[in-house]
Amino acid sequence: MSIETTLAIIKPDAVERNLIGNIIKMIEENGLRIKKIKSHFLTEIEAKKFYEVHKTKAFYDKLIAYMTSGMIIVMLIEGENAITKYRQLIGSTNPDDAEEGTIRKLYSIDGTRNAVHGSDSKENAITEIQFFFA
Description:
Blueprint: E1 3-10, H1 12-16, H2 20-29, E2 33-40, H3 44-50, H4 60-67, E3 72-80, H5 82-90, H6 103-107, E4 116-118, H7 122-133
Antiparallel strand pairs: 1-3, 1-4, 2-3
């Protein structure tokens, strides 16, 4: 058994559409616990730093504009194999490719406005948790 922590973000489109409770319910029903939670408004500087890994990609500017367009909910979640479990729960980045019943299949508008973010590795989880909960 490996208890892990990971970062989860409910993105601006999902916050705007009042999906916070639905998404948190799915997280908790899948055996994950929310250890810390806060609302946050990303500045452009913060968004560029957080998504620096994507700065050479075509979607980068669109991503920064989107992530600074409204309030986000940031959560530190914990559980057995939390990183993998949460990534499976959220589904593929593109909602058309996401499995039925995943957060992104249920709540995404498109590949950019895809409702949630989740750390994709232990290393990134550490970095991302530190970014928001230092």
